[in-house]
Amino acid sequence: MHCLSISRAVLPLAMATLLAAAGCATRPRVATALPAPGSPPNKFADATLRQLATAQDERNTAALLPYLQRPDAQYRREAALAFASVQDRAAVPALARLLAADTEADVRRAAAFALGQTADTTATTQQALLTQLTTDPDRAVRRYVLEAMGRCATRASLADLVRLPAALAADTSAQVGQAWGLYRAALRGITSEAAVGRVVQLLPLPVPYRARLAAASTLARIRNLNLTPYTPQLIRAAQTDPDYAVRAAATLALGKSTDATVPATLASLARRDADYRVRLSAIRAMNAAMYAPVKEAAWEALTDANGQVALTAAEYFLTHASKESGQLFLAKAGKLNQWRVRATLLGAALKLGGSARDTIRQAIMQRYAAAASPYEKGYLLKALSEDPAAYKWLEEATFTPGQPVVIGTYGMEALVALRHKPDFPASQHAAFARTLQRGVGSGDLAIMGTAAEAIRDPQLALRPRFPSADFLLKARNQLTLPRDLEAWQSLQLTIDYLQGKAATPQPVAAAATHPINWAVVQTVPVGQKAIVHTGRGPITLTLLVEQAPGSVASFVELVRQGFYEQKNFHRVVPNFVAQGGCPRGDGWGSSDYNLRSEFADLRYVEGAVGLASAGKDTESCQWFITHAPTPHLDGRYTIFAQVEQGMDVLSQLEIGDRIDRIELLSSPK
User: Fold this and answer.
1) Where is the PPIase cyclophilin-type domain (predicted)?
2) Is it the case that residue 10 has pLDDT exceeding 80?
3) Residue 512: exposure state from Cβ atoms within 10 A (0-12, 13-18, ≥19)
């Protein structure tokens, strides 16, 4: 399933002092108290908590609501948190009452978090949050309320979030909440000039780290934003912030400025920042308009000590290089050792082509024949998608019988990418339609799903070539739910498209088909460690059984069965995630059951471990680890573990690297 990625800069003493004062934590840890000897391993020894978690898993609002009124504050809190996963707006009035009236701050925080997760934009919710902001005596509750206001904001209510009440203007906790609230609103496309101006004010020290991270992340992610007026503030943050994550996000935001100083700044950051994630962000921020002044820095980055930086540089050339010789890129690619960087640069060579295009295409095909790794072969197929003359060869490679499924997956993606090229010949359009029909009938999940998606792509305008959806119906009926959900859904959406019907809602397996295995949960102690043994070294995880019992139980069962042995990391996105656990090795594989999403009050910090999904409540066996904070995933993907050791190993992982085995350590003493 598709989701959907340490070194620190040497700081002068004054900056280090500011860092300590700001309370900066590069990788916040989940607070977990280990069980005392002889005590239950985790909180789910309590039968009432198991009942609550089961009701959450079943999405049973009626069963959960009475717990919001229980005398025991723990049960009220857990019930409120359950609604963060259930996300039923029918619970909003009860949650609003809990937020307004509960005597326990922990319970009110949980209610605010759950209200934010429902993303209810009605005036009732807006007023409940605004009232609590001005009346609640607890700083942490107010911080949660501000973030929830962002998740529930409308364009009309955004002003309430931009202007803090005067009494909170100097409250650092309120600054953090406001910054995250503005970030959550921006993710939903709700922002304003005043909001951007306030975000920029929250960017420099001595604003707390969490607020600076939110501010920088907001500026990096808002689309179609001209940040030229704020260039000095962005440069200062990119060059001097003590935390790599803030520097990286501010650096990325510099790509939205047209100021003449930006290209040189990005080139310098790409060469000199001590953290690979900042160097990577500098290259990612470079655009076509900057090509001449940043080109040399990008050339140097192709041999960066960190492979993720080198790959990002190759991707920059593939996307933005112009007026260059394809032969030049072919020669440079031949000197590179990292296969993914080399294949990407070969794609750039073929795209630029010129008189050497035939020579470059043949060179890529020769490398394909010699490559041992199916993943390298896949990337070479991606490179060939830059040349329409490679169409027939690509098709044959895609459908070669008996080859690893990974190759067919990359091949079909390459064929679709090729069809999108402006110079794809009209004389080949009919042949491409036949290729898609062949793909739908192939029986391979990835080829079927990708081909079906292309048929309904409005840019390709293929509907007239498929007067009947019978071949899609036949293919869909051969699939098994929930195991083949992603391919099933792609086929069904294309059937709806060809038949002129509204899109069929995604089917979600009921909790009864795979309930939480409480017997397994009660064998997993708080603080349970799991070591992922890879060819690059070990990565140690702490499982979060109290926050995600169903997900942890599933993971533990699969580990005990040896399910993950000799699986691959099939997806590595620089400065985002490394993802593995797919039984096919290409991201289209699954177990024969689905899990329900468990959205605890956790954040995707560096080293967070989440479950991949094809949508809410469709999690299975695939998981990913984040290279850096990725707050846009918060509350959307289950977090079930946290890396404790091995971030240096994670930064080296490459597509195709093996998971040799996963070891569950003995219970903590």
Assistant:
1) 537-669
2) no
3) exposed
Q: How far apart are CA 484 and CA 385, in angstroms?
A: 27
What six digits make up the tokens of 10? 């040497």
Q: Which tens digits make up the pLDDT trace of 19-53? A: 333 333 344 445 556 777 778 999 999 999 999 99
Residues 6 or more apart whose Cβ sits within 8 Å of residue 318: 344, 345, 347, 348, 351
Contact 1, 445 (CB under 8 A): no
The region of weakest confidence among 18-22, 105-109, 196-200, 552-556 is 18-22
Judge whether 351 and 340 are in contact, CB under 8 Å: no
- Asked if residue 388 has a cis previous peptide bond (ω within 30° of 0), the answer is no
Span 285-295, pLDDT tens digits: 999 999 999 99
629 neighbors 584 (Cβ within 8 angstroms): no
User: 535: which DSSP letter?
Assistant: T
Give the mean pLDDT of the chain: 94
| Contact status, residue 190 vs residue 156, Cβ threshold 8 Å | no
Paired residues of 47 in beta bridges: none
What burial letters (b/e) apply to 469-508, b meaning 16+ CB within 10 Å?
A: bebbeebbeebeebbbbbbbbbbbbbbbbbeeeeeeebeb
Instruction: Report the DSSP beta bridge partners of residue 291.
Output: none
Q: How many angstroms separate the CA atoms of 302 and 306, rounded?
A: 9
In 371-419, which ranges are continuous DSSP H helix?
374-384, 391-398, 405-419
* Domains and their CATH numbers in the chain: 426-507 (no CATH), 516-664 (2.40.100.10)
Which secondary structure element, helix H or strand E, spans residue 456, and what is its range? none
DSSP 348: H
Q: What is the pLDDT of residue 37?
A: 73
CA dihedral 195, 200, 201, 207 (to 10 degrees): 120
For 538, list phi and psi in degrees, rounded to 5. Answer: -85, 150
**Residue 612, both tokens:** 């991949």
Evaluate if residue 2 carries a pLDDT over 60.
no
Specify the amino acid at residue 445: L
Q: Which two structure tokens, joined as six digits, stand for 131?
A: 């009232």
What are the residues whose beta carbons fall under 8 Å from the beta carbon of 453, sequence distance 6 or more? 416, 490, 493, 494
Rounded to 10 degrees, the C-alpha dihedral 8/11/16/18 comes to -100
Given a contact cutoff of 8 angstroms between Cβ atoms, the answer to whether 54 and 46 are in contact is no
pLDDT by residue (tens digit) across 485-514?
Answer: 999 999 999 999 999 999 999 999 999 999
Can you tell me the mean pLDDT for 517-543? Answer: 98
Contact 199, 182 (CB under 8 A): yes
As a whole number, mean pLDDT of residues 299-324 equals: 97
Q: Which of 600, 644, 626 is nearest to 56 (CA)?
A: 600
pLDDT of res. 667: 63
Interatomic CA distance for residues 512 and 501, integer angstroms: 30
Query: For residue 553, what are the CA distances in angstroms to 520, 544, 593, 643?
Result: 6, 10, 13, 18
Q: What is the DSSP string of 410-423?
A: HHHHHHHHHHTSTT
CA 108, chain centre distance (Å): 29
List the structure tokens of 83: 């609604």
Distance CA 612, CA 623 (A): 5
Span 448-463, pLDDT tens digits: 999 999 999 999 999 9
Cα separation, 368 vs 379, whole angstroms:
9
Q: In whole angstroms, give the CA distance from residue 147 to residue 408.
A: 44
